[in-house]
TrEMBL record:
Residues 61-183 form the DUF7168 domain. Residues 4-40 form the DUF2786 domain. It comes from Acetobacter lovaniensis. This is DUF2786 domain-containing protein. Pfam families: DUF2786, DUF7168. Transmembrane segments: none annotated. Residues 185-213 are annotated as: Disordered.
Length: 230
């Protein structure tokens, strides 16, 4: 739906809830006429609260993002009852607009913390550790970190109707639903110890749910699904 048309319809529907009966009736009449003129239906009204928010932080600079970043998105989308989509190394959250704002904010905050703690973990490793083992242990640390965060987050239950609206919005807005390939971590000695350290660090992650400032609500073509709704 065109943004100007959407905003106009939102205003008319808001006025139709006025405590003034005459004003409410007039606004409802205008809203119905406006919908008829623009070929809108009840589904279009239902979709008014569904939107998208683009996160500031990239998913990964690598062509195949690490699996733990996909896990992090899953934790956040389950907590906020939305869906995460991906393209050009950027992440968009789709669902009820207010919750998507918070989801994008949470992702930006947590992704920065995770990347910093990954770097710190690698620096603390024995200098004799081979590069490939450094990466594997750091991956295990990050996986544990995300699990630590998950242990502090409660999943949000959303209705089947809301899930259907999110799916409808996605189909209308995005042209691709390809699944992205995530890089899995390699097995290495000391992996469990690294994961345990990550879990403890993740338990201490800052999960401030303060509402972020205004974000650009812009569509992106060719996005791919990262996770499924709970």
């Amino acid at each position: 739906m065109d943004e100007k048309i959407m905003e106009r319809l939102k205003k008319l529907l808001a006025l139709s809830k006025s405590p003034n009966p005459h004003e409410a009736a007039l606004a409802l009449e205008k809203a119905q006429r406006f919908m008829a003129e623009n070929g809108l239906c009840q589904d279009d009204i239902d979709l008014l609260d569904i939107g998208e928010t683009l996160a500031d932080s990239v998913l990964s600079s690598a062509s195949a993002p690490p699996e733990y970043m996909g896990w992090l998105l899953t934790v956040i989308t389950m907590a906020m009852g939305c869906k995460a989509l991906y393209a050009r190394k950027k992440v968009a959250f789709v669902g009820v607009s207010a919750r998507c704002e918070i989801a994008a904010y949470m992702y930006d905050v947590l992704a920065r913390q995770l990347r910093k703690q990954r770097r710190d973990f690698i620096r603390a490793l024995d200098k004799r550790t081979l590069p490939k083992n450094r990466t594997a242990k750091a991956d295990a640390f990050c996986e544990g970190w995300v699990m630590g965060v998950q242990s502090r987050v409660e999943a949000m239950k959303i209705s089947a109707h809301e899930k259907a609206l999110i799916e409808k919005f996605k189909q209308k807005t995005y042209t691709s639903d390809e699944e992205i390939k995530l890089r899995q971590s390699k097995k290495v000695r000391g992996q469990s110890d690294a994961a345990n350290k990550g879990w403890k660090a993740g338990r201490e992650a800052q999960l401030d749910r303060g509402v972020a400032g205004p974000r650009a609500q812009r569509g992106m073509q060719g996005l791919v699904i990262i996770d499924e709704l709970c």
